[in-house]
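Give me structure tokens for this 140-residue protein.
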Amino acid sequence: MEDAAELARIIAAHASREGPLLPILHDVQAAFGHVSEATIRTIAQALNLTRAEVHGVVSFYHDFHDHPESRPVLKLCRAESCQARGVEALAAALPVQDRVKIETIYCLGLCSVGPNAMVGDRLHARLDAAKLNALVEALA
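Here you go.
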């Protein structure tokens, strides 16, 4: 299991909020890289929810993973605005990656400067083939 003290700190930081589950899950994902089954049980107990309720939220949102990803992750926006700006051609031109996980995401909120991608908390806008390939290579 993850660091129990850190998990308790995360839960305590949000427990008094209305609707604390999503902020807790985001902080757990950021801190541990995943939301394990043991963590789901701990969060459920702390918030007086069933394990199924917490698991339902974790499994619904693509940002939460049940195991840590060993590769760096590039989230490529494939929403309508980025599609209109050519993201599908960029994605199709990317070489198959085994060292970088390319994950689809729908809307990073930078519609006027797409195509866009996100690595960690850093956004990358106005991507073209050269910029996207350089970004992937830098992660690999």
